[in-house]
Amino acid sequence: MHQAAEATDTTPQEEVMTSAWASKGFRWLWTGSAISSFGSEVAELALPLLALVTLSASSGELGMLRAAQFLPFLLATLPIGLLVDRSRRRRLMIGADLGRFVLIALIPLSVWFDLVSMGLLCGVIFGAGVLTVLYQMSDFTFLPSVTTVHQLSDANAKIAATQSAMEIGGRGIGGVLVQSLTAPIAMAVDAVTYLLSAISLSRIKVDEQTPARTSRSPFREVASGFRVVLSNAYLRALLGGAMTFNVFQEVFTIGFMLYAVRDLSISPAGLGAILVAGGAGSFVGAWFGSRLTARWSYGKVLLAALALGNTAPLASALAAPAWAFELLMAVFFVMGIGIGISNAHAVTIRQVAAPVELRGRVNAAYRLITWGGIPVGALSGGLLASQLGNRGAMVLGAAGLATATLWILFSPIRTLRSVGHATPDHLTA
User: Which domains does the chain have, with CATH numbers?
Assistant: First the structure.
């Protein structure tokens, strides 16, 4: 897509929807995304279990590991956003995949040669996190290059649904791999998926010209992204909601992992089953989200999905050893439905609302603020777990998640009829 969708007065029922499968470039991009997402979901379970079981990590050390994984979103987002706007995105994505293949492969090798330590894990994960920032920001900007404007919403929905499906398979298989073959084997599987993703991306044929260089200083170019994010009412509301969600999601996750493993003695396979329930819910939400939008307005569907997904974790306060496993399965499933619907909708609004020539910098500013809150939440989660107990941190995180919906409730997004109305021209008209 070379320009933002034209704002019209069409109703959701009249909005044109075209399948993204018609684009060969999208099919290869989808394949690479699906493969690497599967590996990432395997590692999402294997990495903390490797720290908890192999290295007997404390709650503080687990928080530090999570912080190292997401600290790059705070430190590297701005320069990478500028790089993305000045480079060919497909090449950046391939380079990021190859780099992650090498780094993640170091983890099982270090275990097998008895060299592993928390310091090494944090260093490797930090490096892989920088490359993840590079890949995701390039992917966000590259996707419109292999789809038309009418395929974009469908493309985001398909990618979101696929990522949810990978959560189902990846986390479930990850639990089995950790329990039967150990966590290092699971991390080796993750490494190989990045190599396969790079091969898939290399098959994409697209006439992607290197963006023209400008005479403006890097600081002014970076500032332009912040200016758009903070001045656009749609992006500003999504920014606040995502930042609140990410901070408290980490507190909830740290508390949940510690509570499940150490207080409830849930096995790796059982822990994987709980996470699979979340992935199943996300798949259902992402798959049927566009159908809901065809019946009701874009904003109402997004608000309802956020209310469902962000409020469901409050039920974790009722968890007790006798029924905690079943309750947590239900909590993650319902939470997943809300996330599956809202993620695809929110990403599409961000892509349409940002000016094409500033999309990389706008995404960088957005990511810096929203994902920058993740290491803060991770460190806070480890500290709160040591002070309030594992269950207490989990419940506090759930309470914070419920407040994230308020940003959308009190914003113009609530009355957004279709994604076409989110363009900059329509908002300022």
Answer: 20-205+216-428 (1.20.1250.20)
